[in-house]
Protein 1
Amino acid sequence: MLIYKDIITGDEMFSDIYKIKETESGCCFEVEGKVVKRTEGDIPDSLIGGNASSEVGEDGDLQSTTISGVDIVLNHKLQETGFQKETYTLYLKKYMKTIKEKLGEEKPERVNDFVKNAPQACKAIMANFKNYQFFTGESMNPDGMVALLDYREDGITPYMIFFKDGLEIEKCCCVCAVKSGKIPNPKNKF
């Protein structure tokens, strides 16, 4: 599995379990998600050996909540934030400068492509600004990436936009983690 992390904050932004494609400019990833509903809540005492008393209601005192949202946002704990067009423009200029500097240090071969294609990506984003919801990583670091959420023409299918050069890819392999001892092997006897 590949995990895509913000190069500034280290926050997980998405993984390769979603449909991912590059945008026309080649500067961004478009990641398609799904709207999901999840039930979260307490485990009833009866499931862990407790004895339900006569004072407890029929539901066994189970308190659960149902949350719904875009799976990318829920799975990676992205945090919604807000922008006016003017403040987003200021953020975007600062962010683009930071990414260009990072590329110069870590991937100098990418700088020319980034400088060439970033304005096209930014122009497309600003043209569609009113349709976006904005999300930061879990840390909510204001210097990090702000991902954009929109919906396809069907009005049902969500997708998010992430700046490609603002991400680092981490390979996560459960088999390797088991072999390294970081995750206990279920075959081991205790």
Note: Confidence is low (pLDDT under 50) at residues 175-190.
Protein 2
Amino acid sequence: MATNSLAFLVARGGAASSAAVASRHSIVAKAPAHGFAAPGAGACFAGVAVATVQARSRRTVRGSRGIQSSRVAMGGMLRMIAEDEALPGRASEMPIAEKHFVLGTPMKGPWPEGSDMFVFANGCFWGSEKGIWRLPGGGIVSTAVGYAAGFTPNPNYQEACSGLTGSTEAVQVVFDPEKVGLVDILRWFWQAHDPTQGMGQGNDRGTQYRSGLYYFNDEQKEIFEASKAAYESALQAAGRGRGQVTTEIISANAFPDGKVFYYAEDYHQQYLAKPGARPYCSAQPQVVDLPAFESWCPQHLQEKYKPKLGEDFWKEHGPKPHCVIMSPNEPIVWP
């Protein structure tokens, strides 16, 4: 079985001890794609070993710095790699289903005229995606999970787990701004995790679980940065979190050809809605509200980006610990 083969590579590659593998989340491990059997806990560590062996075999060719000094914990690195340390990746995209498993909409477009899009990362992408596709009003056109803001084109799950791609687990959300606001989605993003945890979220540690917002225009940038400052102040006032918000905010255009996001394997797409899915989410919502929109949104953007969801929605359906695990898969009916 693939699990045994990967465990063998862990032992041979020296990237993680058997004790370290055993310490990986005992609740769940993400099933590998395309011909691999579902593993037990420790799949991310196996990915570290596989990718580390690959990186070592290329080191003299690429002339990159050594990676042995990098601290590896719970499946990934706790510091960002340099571009010349990254795995090479591949030119071809991951094959995925044409239609969204829950919404029945296209996974890769074309999108309806007037649709908007951005990419975010706030921990394990299984729960992150489910929280967004459930937003009400028919405004979520499509969601997809993938690997964002890295150096490696079209990485696979094991490579992303290694920390040797620079990627973070992310969600691409396409939405109709006439039905659900950018600020509504952004509020869910902030309140659904603890954005002060740096390289990780809950039990999931490593650069592949870092918090991030990736924008496609200057107005998104303004709103993202203003909301970040507001939420940091709210967390600190409530005595929650670990201090400074560590969420990175980066333009999609900072990446070659604007390619900030690469689709993950098909089994990861809408994972928590699929038969046999293992209910897992390590996000740590702090139960702190994003302050009132008018108090932080730039004045010249307030009319255009006014939220569609009122406070009564957030009181009833706002993110809480384990909320995506306990909630139905279908979009929320509201009001």
Note: Residues 218-238 form the longest helix (21 residues).
Protein 3
Amino acid sequence: MYNYFASKEELAKFAIKYSTNILADELRKINNLDISSKEKIYIFVKKYLENVQKSPEVIEYFLRVYLSNREVFKQGCEGFLCVGEFVTEVMILLDDGAQKKEFREQEFFPAFAMIMGCLGGFAFLSGENVLDKDILSYSDAVADNIYRALKYEE
């Protein structure tokens, strides 16, 4: 595999773009559905946890390599450059929900970190084999927590 890339770093960058684009494509499809923002959160969480279950290496790569070895990604992956499509789709989800008054207006980064913290936490717990039940059985509870943190209140 290394023969196709100029360096291990280039391979790592390609792998992170590939893995996050899988998530971005799924979220893009969800964002295009004509349903409530709450339903989108529930579907997104379920799809994310299904990915954790079916392809743990995709999520594990993001958590264990990209986030913990940022120095590998300094050249050409600054900021959100390598994960931009996914970040954009999360931004669209949040913006659409806020425009419809289903989510409250808030700064992007706290909302993004809250969503990814919940999902990343469950991916980590699953990878460590410490969950009491199948990861998908937590889907509604995780989605409910995320929705409650985002929902619009008068």
Note: Helices lie at 8-31, 37-54, 56-66, 84-99, 108-127, 139-150.
Protein 4
Amino acid sequence: MAAFFTRCKQFLRRYPLLVLVTLVAVLAFGFTTALANYNMITVRASVLNVRQGPGLSYNVMAQVSGGQKYTILDQRNDWYQIRLDNNRIGWVASWLVDNTEVSQATNRVGLVTVNEANIRQSANTAAQVLGTAKSGEKVTVLYQANGWSQVLVNNSVGWMRNDTIKLTNETASTVQTNDGSNAQVSQAAIKTVTTKQTAYLRSSPSDEASAVTALSANTTLTYLETTGQWYYVQTKSGQKGYVASWLVSLSANDTAAKTIPTKLSEATIMLDPGHGGSDSGAIANNGTSFEKTYTLETAKLVAAALRAAGAKVIMTRTSDTFVDLGPRADMANKDGVDAYISIHFDSAPTANQASGFTTYYYNPKKDLGLAKSLSTALGQALPLTNKGVSYGNFEVLRDNDEPAVLLELGYINNDTDYKEIKSANYQQQAANAITQGLLKYFQ
């Protein structure tokens, strides 16, 4: 031990500068790490939804008030993960925190002041034009930042330049549907609300108010009026009280329009691995390899890639089980997904007769844009021939109310195609391409 200390002293005498630099570097690293671990955000919106995941498609788990501060635990896409006071962890939209330019005139009516103003998909002059607004037309201004206004026009959300709008003192009658966007609904049109999860009917519009009764998920209540972020409702048994607006969905003669995602991280995607269980699908030339195996393997990789991009993913099956065609489309309709992708592998009447992949759509109005975006991305990534976009009269597309496509990602009874189909590399290439296609589609 004495010899060890003697060597240390000799080292310090010979290399004092090296020791000092090393010590400073270690301290600096520790200080930087400490700062990185304690980044704070301040809520600027008057009320901010905290969601279960990093995207608008995830359920609201709580709300926080303006001015509150939270530590950032993680960041994904445009979302921050925070810890609430009760130790629950959730996600908040980055564009609604630490933004001093957010207008306090949220939900005020604006008048278009130019002959014709473009409404764009995002706050950028290069963004896609969704439509136009004429001089004198009224729009609901949701919030303003960096010279742009997010507006609601004809139940669609878009962006307009501030210099094309003049704010009035009139406040729009709106109901909040998600972070930073609202769906404009006439209160006279609202008939019922339905709980999306277990909730409480409260005696006044506050989380602190006493509970009148507990409400199970999917309970339908008669709508009476709106008070702030709360609905005054009546149960079937006649009990009246308040339920939080973020815990229910609306039903009306003309229901609140679905908000169209402008980013993949805001979207809900349904993946449908074809066949399964007793339905093997097409069979490879070896007689022992089935389509159902590779559709599921590929779908799982697609799901992982999409979740990494912030999307919410629902799968029609996650194991080797049989799901009939009708229920697959029904799932998409019930969940109101933003895109439905059915994954298959083709088969020709004769072995090795056909090769390549095809993207099918049914309804050109709702499906074709999605089909083209995915076909282009797949064509740029896969080694097989892109046979393009084609009309397909498939039940899962025909009975689907949402944007839907069916992908035939190669011919399983073509030996060259099958070599790719069964490889993890090809499946991952397809997963990455589908993700890229959806990123482009939701821009």
Note: Helices lie at 2-14, 16-36, 291-308, 325-335, 364-381, 395-398, 415-421, 424-441.
